[in-house]
Q: What sequence folds into this?
């Protein structure tokens, strides 16, 4: 049975009311979470990314979205972000900007009253506007991620993957029977943390879960949590927003890379995207290197040079074997370092 959007909206309204926010409609004025200054900074175009505000006349209200277009490549993969409930979409500009700089078209959708339940199908207009994009991934934060699952369930033919930021699908939006790649990223300081691993039954069996130690709900975006109407946004984190965002962005980019025409990360090219070796190196990156400015610089340099190295590896099998021996040695040291 196909779930209609009216049914989805009614259920979502019930969900919102049970969460203590109160019944709302698309026309009710609600003060949304205020973006931080860093979010507004990320709305500026630079040499790597062009930021545009696109008006969609077919939408009756809140009729625009933000497009982050990479300048150095012609993207073939697009990532659509549905914001969390009552969060200004500009709050997601910093991760959108950084992900776009990696070669992906990134779209942040403005929702009626900043509630994605009133704009679940807005991805349709976006997808139809970009003929050059071969593969689309949809995702979002909190309610935005749940709405992304609703869209992916009803329009599986339009997307190849789903990215969940501190989010999970309910029973009615389960996508475990769909031919989709999914990743779930959440923080250990998120309220109701047990719901994230429990959501595995509603997701494809190969879904990886990225648990951010000390990460909270609000730091999936750049907004003032004290300005938010939802209590969960005010649960403090044990790590900085910079640390949490570094893990969110890199985990999302790693996920998106599997949809590229070919792997561009050296370790993934040698061992595979979700091999135990690659996962160990990612763990070391996220839990050791990302904690210091020097480590984050090493991460940046690694990903800057990886595409060129993998291109050479495609033509030189001996180089690939030599690099594998080198990385095998690093894996041994990594194992010791994280014990």
A:
């Amino acid at each position: 049975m196909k779930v209609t959007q009216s049914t989805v909206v009614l259920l979502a309204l019930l969900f919102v009311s049970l969460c203590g926010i109160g019944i709302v409609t698309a026309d009710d004025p609600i003060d949304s979470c205020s973006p931080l200054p860093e979010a507004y900074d990320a709305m500026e175009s630079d040499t790597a990314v062009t930021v545009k505000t696109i008006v969609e006349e077919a939408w009756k209200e809140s009729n625009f979205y933000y497009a982050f277009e990479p300048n150095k490549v012609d993207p073939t993969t697009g990532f659509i972000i549905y914001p969390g409930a009552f969060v200004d979409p500009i709050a997601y500009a910093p991760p959108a900007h950084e992900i776009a700089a990696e070669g992906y078209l990134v779209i942040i959708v403005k929702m009626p009253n900043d509630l994605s339940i009133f704009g679940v199908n807005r991805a349709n207009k976006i997808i139809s506007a970009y003929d050059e994009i071969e593969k689309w991934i949809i995702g979002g934060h909190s309610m935005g991620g749940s709405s992304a699952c609703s869209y992916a369930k009803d329009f599986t033919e339009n997307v190849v993957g789903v990215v969940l930021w501190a989010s999970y699908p309910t029973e009615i939006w389960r996508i475990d029977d769909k031919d989709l790649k999914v990743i779930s990223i959440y923080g250990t300081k998120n309220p109701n943390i047990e719901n994230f691993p429990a959501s595995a039954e509603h997701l494809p069996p190969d879904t990886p879960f990225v648990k951010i130690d000390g990460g909270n709900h609000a730091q999936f975006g750049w907004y003032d949590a004290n300005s938010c109407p939802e209590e969960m946004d005010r649960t403090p984190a044990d790590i900085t927003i910079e640390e949490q965002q570094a893990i969110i962005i890199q985990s999302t980019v790693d996920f998106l890379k599997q949809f590229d025409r070919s792997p561009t990360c050296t370790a993934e090219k040698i061992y595979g995207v979700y091999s135990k070796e690659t996962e160990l190196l990612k763990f070391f990156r996220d839990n050791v290197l990302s904690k210091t400015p020097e480590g984050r610089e090493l991460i940046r340099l690694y990903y800057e040079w990886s595409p060129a190295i993998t291109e050479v590896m495609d033509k030189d099998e001996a180089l690939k074997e030599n690099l594998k021996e080198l990385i095998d040695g690093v894996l041994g040291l990594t194992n010791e370092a994280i014990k």
